[in-house]
Amino acid sequence: MVSKYLIIYNEIKEKVENGDIKPNTKLSSENELMKKYSVSRDTIRKSLNLLEQNGYIQKIKGKGSFVLDINKFDFPISGLTSFKELANKMGVKSHTILEELELIKPDDFLMNQLNVSKNSNIWKVIRVREIKDQRIILDKDFFNKKHIPSLTDDICKDSVYEYIEGELGLKIGFAKKEITVQKATEEDKKYLDLEEYDMIVVVKNYTYLDDMSLFQYTESRHRPDKFRFVDFARRK
């Protein structure tokens, strides 16, 4: 016999998947759901917890449970893909907003991340990525000027990787990546449409040319409900 909380979970899940319950819709309260299904509060909470665990709803303290947009964008963990390439592959409306482009001297943090001296020159590029008219990615890129001698607004609004490979004739080799979940900063809140979310998925990239020169350090900060981070693994 299937548990009542699973029956309720599956019913709500199917309605979300079929579009009968739209993203950002507030679900009925626990009391209303108890009456509708003639079950205990504990049963309803088990159903809601399972819906939240599986990415169908977000419970917000004092406000209730809200349906998430389950049509997430696949973000490849392995491989090196520019935002322009990713957006083209997804076939969605996208736009890059260049917030900052300047040549700076590295602080202690950047000296460590890029393995450079304090006298080095670093391109700082801050870009906001819009997908379907929502600002959901904040990219903070730092390029070693030794390898990337010049950058312009137009290049940064289009594709830096396309410029590096096409115009500079350099070959991008590989990247080391770190993925963490962090509390949203004031900067995140300033640039992104976070709505009720106070957490950010941060992908840090250390990107190398094919001669093993580290030329880029990136913090790519993503709204957590919009992306599904995917990879392919094979057991050896």
UniProtKB/TrEMBL annotation:
Domain HTH gntR-type positions: 2-70
Protein origin, superkingdom: Bacteria
Keyword Transcription in annotation: yes
Swiss-Prot/TrEMBL keywords: DNA-binding, Transcription, Transcription regulation
Record bears the keyword Transcription: yes
InterPro entries, per database record: Bact_HTH_transcr_reg, Chorismate_lyase_/UTRA_dom_sf, TreR, Tscrpt_reg_HTH_GntR, UTRA, WH-like_DNA-bd_sf, WH_DNA-bd_sf
Pfam families xrefs: GntR, UTRA
NCBIfam families: trehalos_R_Bsub
PANTHER family xref list: HTH-TYPE TRANSCRIPTIONAL REGULATOR TRER (PTHR44846:SF12), MANNOSYL-D-GLYCERATE TRANSPORT/METABOLISM SYSTEM REPRESSOR MNGR-RELATED (PTHR44846)
The protein, known as: Trehalose operon repressor
Organism: Tepidibacter hydrothermalis
Gene name linked to the record: treR
